[in-house]
Write a structure and sequence with these properties.
132 residues, alpha+beta, 2,3-Dihydroxybiphenyl 1,2-Dioxygenase, domain 1, five-stranded mixed beta sheet, 19% helix
Length: 132
C-alpha cells in the first residue's frame, strides 16, 4: 500500500527563476540547488508540511530529461493547500500571476474551495490551490 507523498517532480527550464517564484511568491522553504551530474540534473527541494516538490532541470544536453523539457517539461497539475484561498489569490494577482477562470474560488472535488493558476506562470505546470 502506498504511504504519504514523498515528492512531486516538475521539470523546469530555469531552475533559479522557479525556485525564486516558489520562495518569494508562494512563501515556501526552498533548498539550495544541488547538482547531480551522474543523474544529469540540477534540482532544489521545496519543503511542505507533508511532502516535497522537486524542481529539476537538465544538467546539460545529455541529460535524460533534456528531451522531456524540449517537449515542454512540467506535469499535469499539483495541488497545494493554503490557509486562506482569497488572501492567497490576492497575493498572487498582486505579483502579476494569473488565476484561471473568473478568479473566484469554486468548490473542488474534496468539497473545499479551489483555484487554478495559469500553467505558463509555473513552467508549464497547472497548479491547484485548495483551502486547507
Amino acid at each position: 500500500m502506498i504511504g504519504r507523498l514523498n515528492h512531486v517532480a516538475i521539470v523546469v527550464g530555469d531552475l533559479e527563476a522557479e525556485a525564486t517564484r516558489y520562495r518569494d511568491v508562494l512563501g515556501a522553504a526552498v533548498s539550495e540547488p544541488h547538482a547531480l551530474p551522474d543523474h544529469g540534473v540540477r534540482l532544489v527541494f521545496v519543503d511542505l508540511p507533508n511532502t516535497r516538490v522537486e524542481l529539476l532541470t537538465p544538467f546539460d544536453k545529455t541529460s535524460p530529461i533534456h528531451a522531456f523539457l524540449a517537449k515542454g517539461g512540467g506535469l499535469h497539475h499539483v495541488c497545494y493547500e493554503v490557509e486562506d484561498i482569497e488572501a492567497s489569490r490576492d497575493r498572487l494577482l498582486a505579483s502579476g500571476l494569473r488565476v484561471l477562470g473568473d478568479g473566484d474560488p469554486r468548490i473542488g472535488a474534496h468539497g473545499k474551495p479551489v483555484l487554478f493558476l495559469h500553467p505558463k506562470d509555473f513552467a508549464g505546470t497547472l497548479i491547484e490551490l485548495q483551502q486547507a
